[in-house]
Write a structure and sequence with these properties.
Number of strands: 0
Low-confidence stretches: none
Shape: flat
Strand content: under 5%
Mean pLDDT: 77
Radius of gyration: 27 Å
């Protein structure tokens, strides 16, 4: 009788005991993760010269396998995130393609495909670049998680804070390209010299996505200069003195990333990059007002 009552009691209280076990497990997991995060940001790494680090790695090559395995895990998670974001983009590719074709006078209906496989290639390109854009914050986080163990405490915190800032800069560059550059560039190119142009999906999407992507990457330049100035590799005076060389380099880069060879599109890319360069000089001065002697 007693065993029967005990069995009934265990059956009746099973849901409550399961909830209690689940709550205790969650609390233990949170405490463990909190301690791990606190240790991650508080522990200081051993500051060793680069030559000693290379010599140690050469003498004990097995220790590199730990870093290789960590790199493999980070790359695997990054690729999985990119695949998921790209697959998600496939679901809304019509809306995305319509958004990209909005600067055209007739929208997506004005695009005319010539080759049989052209629409498929266009959809793949749109989905892949949209997936990369959506996964960009997580990709940056995985990169930071890989290099963070080798940084000191301050650099870890600054690197983590730089991820949302880098994301905002990247998205800001894409927004600038879409709402400022493309509305003025596309009508000019399509109606140039009074010659009627019928845009193809492949060439148009390649042009638009290349402009948006590379301008987004270019908007990361001030953040990179700020970090380099913070650690003392560059300074505002050096960047200001080399502005003529910088303009030449920007012109070469603009010629490489511009989908077409006409000077109008090259100037559209050069203009924002030159402005960003001088803005980077200002950020370098904020990071370190006085150059290192």
């Amino acid at each position: 009788m007693r065993n029967t009552l005990r069995l009934i009691w265990r059956i009746l209280t099973a849901p409550f005991r399961f909830i209690a076990w689940l709550v205790r497990s969650i609390v233990r997991w949170i405490k463990a993760k909190t301690a791990q995060i606190d240790s991650f940001f508080s522990d200081e790494v051993e500051d060793a010269p680069l030559g000693d680090a290379i010599s140690k790695a050469w003498e004990h090559p097995n220790e590199l396998l730990v870093h290789v395995d960590a790199l493999r895990k980070h790359l695997l998670r990054a690729v999985m995130a990119l695949v998921i974001a790209t697959a998600f983009s496939f679901v809304f590719f019509q809306q995305i393609l319509g958004f990209l074709a909005a600067p055209l006078e007739g929208g997506m209906e004005s695009l005319v495909a010539i080759e049989v496989t052209e629409p498929v290639g266009t959809v793949l390109r749109v989905a892949l670049l949209t997936g990369f854009t959506l996964a960009f914050p997580y990709l940056a986080l995985e990169a930071w998680l890989f290099i963070a163990p080798g940084l000191d405490r301050k650099a870890r915190i600054n690197g983590l804070l730089a991820i949302p800032i880098a994301t905002l800069f990247f998205f800001g560059g894409m927004v600038f390209a879409y709402y400022v550059m493309l509305p003025s560039a596309i009508p000019f190119l399509i109606n140039f010299m009074g010659i009627q142009t019928i845009p193809r999906p492949s060439s148009y999407v390649r042009f638009v996505t290349a402009i948006m992507f590379w301008i987004g990457i270019a908007f990361e330049f001030p953040l990179v200069i700020f970090v380099l100035a913070k650690i003392g590799l560059v300074n505002a005076r050096l960047l200001l003195n080399q502005w003529r060389l910088a303009v030449v380099v920007i012109a070469v880069v603009a010629a490489l990333i511009t989908p077409t060879v006409d000077p109008f599109n090259m100037a559209l890319v050069m203009g924002p990059m030159i402005v960003l360069y001088f803005f980077s000089i200002f950020l370098a001065w904020i990071a370190r007002p006085k150059p290192i002697e």
